[in-house]
Design brief:
Order of helices and strands: HHHEHEHEEHEHHEE
Shape: globular
Oligomer: single chain
Distance between the termini: 54 Å
Mean pLDDT: 93
Largest sheet: 7 strands, mixed
Number of helices: 8
Strand order of the largest sheet: 3-2-1-4-5-7-6
């Protein structure tokens, strides 16, 4: 299906999320909780890993990441300072401290190549312009270690007729969804170099999502021979 057009405007996005931060967690609980549960299952976090969550929002998933990786390195970035403030409050209340939260942009990740065992990104791509999809996938690939993995969840087109309702909302009332719309992202991850090991369509209260696990293959060096 055709992906609806969206423009990239960091300032407008920050303003948009400033307006919705007060009820964002309720929206997430109603529509995204099931998909993010599978995302954490796909991730199979092992303690002492180096983990990045891109677009960590209010820290709902990031809190679980930090709890599962208490002796590792946990970094969460987001474009919205308002979301990050709420995330810091959430983690402080949870009594976890082994983490770093800071502003960041998925189009230009401020990290060295091959930095992370795991990169997580939930419900961000569906906000971005189509011409940014490859750049995002390439940046995720660049900062992930060989053998490392990426877990992505997106607002999807779904597989049932009822799921078309959300495409209609995205077309007619985009501001209600802060500009998010159904997308298909798997091919962009493959193009960047990830091998897709798992992907699953999930529906919660009719809201459709796709959860994907990708991995960077380890290429063994060829023998030099005699």
């Amino acid at each position: 299906m055709e992906i609806l057009k969206r423009n990239l405007n960091a300032e407008a996005t920050q303003k948009s999320y400033k307006k919705v931060v007060w009820f964002y967690d309720f929206w997430s609980w109603m529509t995204e909780r099931k998909a993010t549960k599978y995302a954490l299952e796909f991730a199979k976090i092992k303690d002492k890993e180096t983990i990045l969550e891109v677009a960590c929002g209010t820290g709902v998933v990031f809190k679980q990441i930090v709890r599962q990786n208490p002796d590792g390195k946990n970094i969460g970035i987001d474009l919205s300072p308002d979301m990050l403030r709420k995330a810091k409050m959430r983690l402080k209340k949870a009594g976890v401290y082994n983490y770093e939260l800071r502003e960041g942009n998925a189009l230009q990740l401020d990290f060295e190549d091959n930095s992370f065992d795991l990169v997580v990104n939930n419900f961000m791509v569906d906000l971005m312009p189509l011409d940014a999809f490859d750049t995002i996938a390439s940046e995720l690939f660049r900062v992930t270690k060989p053998g490392g993995r990426v877990v992505i969840t997106t607002f999807s087109f779904g597989t049932k007729s009822i799921h078309k309702f959300w495409l209609w909302i995205a077309k007619r009332m985009p501001d209600l969804l802060t500009g998010c719309r159904p997308v298909s992202y798997k091919k962009h991850l493959i193009k960047a170099g990830f091998t897709i090991e798992k992907n699953m369509e999930v529906s919660q209260n009719t809201f459709p999502s796709e959860v994907m696990l990708g991995r960077i293959p380890i290429i063994e060096p060829k023998g030099t021979g005699e």
